[in-house]
Amino acid sequence: MNHTDDPYALTLEALEERVNRCTQCPLSETRTHVVFGEGNAQADLMLVGEGPGEVEDNTGHPFVGPAGHKLDDVLASVGISRAEIYITNVVKCRPPGNRVPAKKEMEACDPYLEAQIALINPKLIVTLGNTPTQWLVPGAGGITHIHGTFIPWRGGIEIVPMFHPSYLLRYPSRSKGSPKYLTWMDIKKVREWLDEHGRNRSSDDV
Ligand code: SF4
After folding, report:
1. Residue 74 has pLDDT above 70, yes or no
2. d(Cα 160, Cα 82) in Å, to the nearest integer?
3. Does 35 sit in the ligand 1 pocket, CB within 6 Å?
4. How far apart are CA 122 and CA 125, in angstroms?
5. I need a labelling partner for 29 at 20 to 30 A (CA). Which of 4, 59, 94, 191 fits?
6. Structural domains in the chain?
7. Is residue 113 within 6 Å of ligand 1 at its C-beta?
8. Of 100, 165, 155, nearest to 126 (Cα)?
């Protein structure tokens, strides 16, 4: 593999240009837009979801549909804005009908996610739902058991699984023990961890 083929040798902008032209898996045939990811390229906190949904596919931006609005609410509850974080998905093209991406599709897209993580070098990665959690931490327990757990990962990065915001839309109760309540507890832990360990850089600082 020469450098022009190596996603790790690219800048984030060049990587995005590469991914926007990608046809490495069948999802390229049904997508409207590639959803590369966006946010603060020097973020302490990176969020990784499963894949783009319909609104994301139509716009090319991650987490901008109803689940994205719910995610914004969760982040805002502890004072975290999109300007502080970087957000992407395991696969950059929408699986038809929002099905779970196939293993081969995730394998094809994985070098891009790995390159994004290497370039952004976050301190904390929040995985949203089972798919990104199992992808980055193979063998991790189900999301209902391990959400809110800090899992030491590679290069000093910690991974914290949380419920996917679309799950919160399906279960609107705020009562103690509900997914919303548990997510609020989890995001508070993330906030506290960032306050203690983060570099606290916003896009205005870079
Ligand atoms: Fe390429 Fe990833 Fe899109 Fe598949 S999902 S076509 S690997 S960018």
Report:
1. yes
2. 18
3. no
4. 7
5. 4
6. 3-197 (3.40.470.10)
7. no
8. 165
